[in-house]
Amino acid sequence: MRYRAPAPEALLTAGLDTLTAVFHRPSGITHLLASPAPEILALLAEEALDADDLLARLAARFDLADANREALVARLDELVAAGLVEPA
Amino acid sequence: MRHVFSVRIGPIGFRVGSDWRAPIDALGELYRYYPSPNLPDFTVRLEATHWWRRWLRPSIRIAGDYTLPEAAPLPLAQGLLAAEMAMNLQLALGGRRFLLLHASCVERDGRALLMTGESGAGKSTLATMLAARGWRFMSDEFALIEPETGLVHPFPRLISLKNAAIAAAIAARPDAKLGPLLAGTPKGDIRHMVPDALAVGAMDEPALPALLLYPRYGFATEVRGVLPSESFVRLTQASTNYVALGETGFGALTRLVRETPAHAVDYPDGAAAIEQVEALWRTL
Amino acid sequence: MADALILARALADPQSLALDTDWTGLITTARAEQLLGTLAYRLDGLPLPEDVALLLADARAAAENGRRAALWEAEMARRALAPLGCTVVLLKGAAFVAAGLLAGRGRSIGDLDILVPRADLDRVEAALLAAGWEWVKPDPYDDAYYRRWMHELPPLIHRDRDRMIDVHHTILPLTARITPDAGALLAAAEPLGNGLAVLSPDDMLVHAAAHLFADGDLAGGLRNLWDIHCLIDDHGSAGLAARAAHHGLSKEMARALRLTHRLFATPVDPAYREVRPGDALYLRRLLARDDWGRPIRPATRLAFYVRSHWLRMPPAMLARHLWAKWRR
């Protein structure tokens, strides 16, 4: 299953030290995200990806401590429940 | 309605209609030197719960543009409290022009100190004490952040003092004008204090937020810096209308937390708190 | 005593407002009738006193946020129900804004209302529960009553977003004396292109009339009647009488047309331009709000409240229902 995130224009982003505040314009909901959630959103906005491709790109593009597929799927499920990510 | 009162407090205008004269007289007396609004932003109604309740064990139901259906009626003797609570409720639920934060606020040299925290943390008392030491009192309950400019606007309503804070505030400002002592309210003893002439006279002068404090009363003195991310979380919880403001709220709050230094301050007593506040202010 | 006629006139003909209008009274009445956003859009662009203009600008901003939140709820329901492949029809306010209708401009929107085929009700319920919605009232008697007799599931609320959804399988309670054709409503529904649908324009009007007269006690009636005015303004009323007859709602539709013409000068067929006995009482009820926002005309209100229960349930059932509730 592939996942997709909204285009950058759909979000207002403010980096605040350890967290990123994200205003999701379609819903009006504000999310406080910690790494790797902002990076996941950025990648899925460029292109719809499945969990394996996403994991590979995260590892390649960003310096992630714990490249674990199970943890990634858990994060994706959270983002789907929050409405930030959609099955493509 | 039978008895009517209007008042402007900072940028917010209210009209209050009442089935009884006493609360209107009390409001008129305490708000005597405040201006009147041209167009009230909000309407409050103090109503008898049933028509016979106007005379028999008179009981006030708070109504108006915005209501909380579960709210319990108050006895007529606490009419002033009912009116103040009702006005607060209108602003909290209906306020849209400003980002509203549950915070007290004082000003010096055009810059503002905002204090926010749980009920009982002492933000009201601290604001009153600082006002007694020459700071300009802007508000004890709501800080109004203007999204376009980031400035905080005054909302110098009657200061609501509870239980032990009553004596402390009177000690700090012995000349202050006071409302009646309302004993046995749902929150204990309550007394209202009118802000000083400077606060009332300058109610149209905003200030630039310069320091955010999270005070905690009843602990050994300790100060620690607070990161913007933590401030953001605390302040969304302290805001009644952040969600309703949408993009505008997001912009106003991110700006505030990024541009304003913040500290958590634990303090054992008022004097220690004042000392900490002045020390932090000097570091700006 | 002042009533809401000032508001009705302002909505129908904004240009007719004089500069010495009682703005405070008008705004308070509009707020109490959930019509402040609507009024703000109707007055947008007209010369107004500055503080009135500012307050109404705030009201438009609030309505915009409300619209966004309503559309998002619809979207999240769509995501939860898409795998089921069944018809999902948006109703009322959410439908008006999703379809870009005049009736949606400035409208205050509360819960999300959707209509699904009765046969799909169980799957829809399961999908919503799996996607984070929860029951509002866990009371077994109310629940049994609801499932057996009402036209909708017991209310659900989303645990994170705190917004309610009402899932209907027809538009009036099963115990009501009138039984609209739910199958026809679903068959004629018009897709929005994203997997959701809205009722056909005629069905939207019939639903609005049913909701206004046959379902409730007319609380919020002025807003509902304004919806009807806007829908007719958008779409006209040719074919409406026939469609209303099909659903068994001829009387209600006719009354709605007479009242909206009377109050808002809505262009309707000449047959609906006269006043019938009983209309005056409805107008009294619809305008029962004063310039302090207070509900007025208690006797009229009570009469309609009692009537609304009588409409929803046959008298024997009503007695039993109230008895059971009283006993608990």
> From the 3D coordinates, which CATH architecture of chain C would you assign?
2-Layer Sandwich
Oligomer: heterotrimer
Could you say which structural class the secondary elements and strand pairing of chain C correspond to?
alpha/beta
Spatial sequence of strands, sheet with the most strands of chain B: 9-7-8-15-17-16
Q: Count the beta strands of chain C.
A: 7
State the domain count of chain B: 2
Q: Helix count of chain B?
A: 8
The shape of chain B, in one word, is globular
Helix-strand pattern of chain C: HHHHEHEHEHEEHEEHHHHHHH
Radius of gyration of chain B: 19 Å
Which bin fits the share of residues in helices of chain B?
25-40%
List the helices and strands and how they pair.
The complex is a heterotrimer of chains A (88), B (284) and C (328).
Chain A lengths: L1 E3 L6 E6 L2 E6 L4 E5 L3 H10 L2 E2 H11 L7 H14 L3 E2 L1
Chain B lengths: L2 E7 L2 E7 L3 H9 L11 E7 L10 E6 L9 E2 L3 H16 L4 E4 L1 E5 L2 E5 L7 H10 L3 E4 L2 E4 L6 E2 L5 E4 L1 H9 L9 E4 L2 E6 L3 H5 L6 E10 L4 E4 L2 H10 L4 H18 L2 E6 L2 H13 L2
Parallel strand pairs in B: 2-3, 8-15, 15-17
Antiparallel strand pairs in B: 1-2, 3-4, 4-5, 6-10, 7-8, 7-9, 10-11, 12-14, 13-14, 16-17
Chain C lengths: L4 H8 L10 H10 L3 H7 L7 H32 L7 E2 L1 H7 L13 E4 L5 H10 L2 E3 L4 H10 L6 E3 L5 E5 L13 H6 L2 E2 L5 E2 L2 H15 L5 H15 L4 H7 L3 H15 L14 H8 L11 H15 L2 H13 L1
Parallel strand pairs in C: 1-7, 2-5
Antiparallel strand pairs in C: 1-2, 3-4, 4-5, 6-7
Helix pairs in contact in C: 3-4, 4-5, 9-10, 9-12, 10-12, 11-12
